[in-house]
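Support reply, case 0932

Customer input (verbatim):
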Amino acid sequence: MGNCYSGELPIEPRDAIIHKSPHPHIVVPDITIWEVAEKQAKLHGDKPAFVCGLTHEVITFSELFKRANRLAAAFRNDGVQKGSVVVVHSFNCIEYPVVVLALTGLGAVCSPSSPLFLPNELNRQITKAKASYVVTHKQLENVALEAATNAGLTSDVMYTIGSTKEESEHNFKNIDDLVLQDKWIFKHKRIKPTTRVMLPFSSGTSGNPKGVCLSAKNLLANAMQIGYVEPRGDNFLGLVPFFHIYGVMLIHLSILQAKSIVILPRFMPDTLLGALSKYKIRTAHIAPPTVLFLAHHPLVDKYDLSSTEFVVSGGAPIGKQVEGLVYKRLGLNVKQIYGMTELSPAVNYGEDDTRKPGSAGRMVPNTELRVRCVNTGKDLPANMEGELLYRGPQVMLGYENNHEANQNIFTEDGFLRTGDIGYIDDDGFVFVIDRAKELIKYKGHQVAPGELEDVLNHHPAIADCCCVRGQNATGEEIPKAFVVLEHPGDLTVPTRENVITYVSEPVVPYKKVCDVEFIDSISKNASGKLLR
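Our regenerated output:
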């Protein structure tokens, strides 16, 4: 299936220059997060594990494990077994970690999907993942039903989460009810830590979304790696979407460290600031746009954020200027975390006592880096820019049923190509300069240019197009389209606004084109590849 990292490092080329993590090697045990949760239920049973920042409902570590057992038993009674793929389509909510833990306990595969997906996009993931079951948020039932029905699934394999007294509109089974029932007994059968348990979708270094096979050990290893460098404390903020691999890692980190996550479903200014203040959160894991909010928005001054010391952000680089603005205004240190879905997700982390402005931090334990020249393919020493390649126990098993993509992303000695350009300095700090890959990163979301081009090319008045990374007035990365019109002299040619509206209809909001420029022709190479 791909790399299947075993802990035994392959023999590297003679001219390889391998930069290693400055941290001591840590031992990743041959267990899964299920066994860790069982242990924490005994040691920290009464401690809050997950707290809803809206309703203030609390699930303790003891209740978490009890609910996961009951849900796993109910799932098994419905036919979910080891290897079954379950798409989880929801906002952040307090039941989400219970679902993830129950599926891991079964050895089933959780395939998280964006709650912003339209029916055709969710259908695509259900189909590609070969999912047999769907868990959706109650607010998203209609979207999920249309997507699942078109994929050949019926309502009896669909479940809802999201606390509400309302009955399911389509008679889906309610996970809130299932976790309270004890009519089924779950007998856990230990799975191999190398078993695939997570199947998020990522565009990788190029192209359309591909299923990323992550093992239980990948996820536990990365939680342990981050746990080694993450500041200790009683709780942290969980605003990062759980459907994103970063959010999945935070669920594992919470269980591993017996720390509480205060969960918020989405970014809402008052709710975010209120949670930071009420729960005296020391570390907040947030997306880059939220960092900008903390730097500039006047509402921030109305709340007491004195307990918060750090904000940790990943998904897109944050410049030195923004880091400086947040520190000057609030005294908060902005720490960057760097990685990708294929890395479970993190390989670099900005630590408390050793940070450099603009850096993604040093490598987490058990991680190695090669910096490869994009022109010669040779490895580079410190302070020279090239493509970043990583190796470690957090590296994915491989892409699902995609031999060609696996060959392209892995080297013979087990390093994974990120497609990102950067360098490592003499002190071991990694700086990410640019992305060699064609992906557009908009508000922390991946946008594949080819997907937008496919929509644009269906417009009858468009002859050709090319989508690239653009910038708005504030310097934020946005999807931009260069468009060649079929008949530019016609009175009925589409305007810039017409094109933007046309693309926005069949895609989720973060994928819409934000800027359009009309040109005479699109540059391509001899084989027809777009020269972006």
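We compared this against your earlier run and they match. Two observations from our side: The two ends are 31 Å apart (CA to CA). The first strand starts at residue 19 and ends at 20. Please reopen the case if you see a mismatch on your end.
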